[in-house]
Amino acid sequence: MTENNRKKPSGLIKQPRVVPELPDKTVIKEQKTKLKEKQADQESVKKINLNQQSNIKVSLNTKQQIDILLKFSSHKFAYELIDSMIDNYVDTALDVDQKRAFKTLSKLISE
Q1: How many CB atoms are closer than 10 A to CB 58?
Q2: 73-76 — which CB contacts under 8 Å span 24+ positions?
Q3: Dihedral angle sign, alpha carbons of residues 7, 11, 14, 18
Q4: Which of 21, 64, 82, 88 has the smallest C-beta neighbourhood within 10 Å, fewest atoms?
Q5: Which string of DSSP letters, residue by residue, matches 11-69?
Q6: Between 60-72 and 78-93, two packed helices, what is the crossing angle to 10 degrees?
């Protein structure tokens, strides 16, 4: 090998210039429509699940008791049974002022 081949290159390594290109307008429009569709899908999912805001954690024994009561009652779902139990509790266990306060707070929360 000659001395010229062993010599390290001096200065910067020359690379070809990179020129960015703008994407087609149709590609941008397609991406925007896909984004809008995803947002619409997410909003519809949120609207569908408004009834199921949170879960209530109960013991296994309480869950079994609710299941037994569902078999004896005319209710199909646990939330219907719980609603009727709340109504019964409000009617029998609360005094007049507590009933009024409960109904007022329930209306404020539901709005």
Answers
A1: 12
A2: none
A3: positive
A4: 21
A5: SPPP-PPP---PPPHHHHHHHHHHHHHHHHHHHHHHHHGGG--------HHHHHHHHHH
A6: 90
104, two tokens = 């007022």
Average pLDDT score over residue span 46-70 = 80
The H or E element containing residue 92 is helix 78-93
Conformation bin of residue 72: beta by default, left when phi > 0, alpha when psi is -120 to 50: alpha
pTM of the model: 0.49
Handedness of CA 87, 88, 91, 94 (dihedral sign): negative
Report residue 104's pLDDT band, with 50, 70 and 90 as the boundaries. very high
Most confidently modeled of 9-13, 26-30, 50-54, 105-109? 105-109
